[in-house]
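COMPLEX REQUEST
Ligand: magnesium ion
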Amino acid sequence: MTRVLRLDLRLVGLPLVRPFRTSMGVSTRKECVLVRVETDEAEGWGECVADLEPDYSAEWNGSAWDAITTFLGPALLAEGDASSASVERVFSPWRGNRMAKATLVDAVLDAELRARGESLTSVLGGDKDAVVCGVSVGITDTTDTLREQVDAYLAEGYRRVKLKIEPGIDVERVAAIRADHPGILLSVDANAAYSLADEDVFRALDDLGLLMIEQPLHHEDLVDHAKLQTRISTDLCLDESIRSAADARAAIELGSCRIVNIKQGRVGGMLEARAIHDVCVTAGVPVWCGGMLETGIGRATNLALASMPGFTLPNDTSASSRYFPEDLTDPFVLEPDGTMRVPDGPGIGVTPDPARLEAATLRRETLEL
Ligand code: OSB
Ligand code: MG
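STATUS: Structure written out below.
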């Protein structure tokens, strides 16, 4: 029996090292909700992947804050046995709000594992102590700027480059990078910006030897993705469209993708992420761990996820220095071989630096029993 005694919420803000432009818009800073849960046994940390605006998903920092303080947090405090075995049931009366739920699921799981002295990676059955890292490169003003950024990331050791694309800034750019680097693992991510009417773009991309095309079409459209997958030979990967294990089953049965990007923060936390992993492994569908420009808290959680056996493709788990001048935790570094070590301390294995956390805090609220 574990009781949750207290939830400390913070909204934190960090500058990004450079603007991150996608088909959805430009981000110049990171803001997210962090929760510290205190149980009668230990503390645990969770980072919400919602952003400043509801663009990638319907959730945003304001909705996540409200969902946690109005519904999820009070229910967790009222629950006699708040553990990883019960937390999903405690949240089941409320639909959606998966990013908000993930924050608390991950924090409760972290506290439980810290109390037991077990690492998240070991409990998940992780089979690697380091994971292969790729980097997600935002849309740039010019092709030359993109070239410079890609060259610098490759020099650092990243083992896969993912280029953000949008209508009008796609085939030419991607072809230029492919010409510079014929042998690299190269992929693109459209964040749902195209439709089936853009078949010419997809046929041209199909000739560039891409590892995958990530989320080309509308986030709610599995049928059109299935049609597109029959028309091109490059593997499609779904990100936004996969919110749950049920979505993953549907997408795989329909033939909407051949690869799944799992973001635990998008799908309601580590437990649902594990369920998606299991669905994909059973179906023979490779998975990889996506990112949402997380701070060190979310990164540690993602690294444990990416250590699971089905994660066979490079992950968007880049170094702290790719995102922030200064992270909230000790910085995560890319090894020269393009991998990153999976934390193996109790729980997620990291905590925020108190002074940096304090300096980054924009808003706070405490919920208590
Ligand atoms: O679509 O994968 C995405 C960042 C914010 C929102 C959506 C996406 C991304 C990324 C960044 O691609 C991946 C990372 O954290 O390195
Ligand atoms: Mg994506």
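REMARKS: The chain is about 35% helix and 20% strand. The chain has a mean pLDDT of 98.
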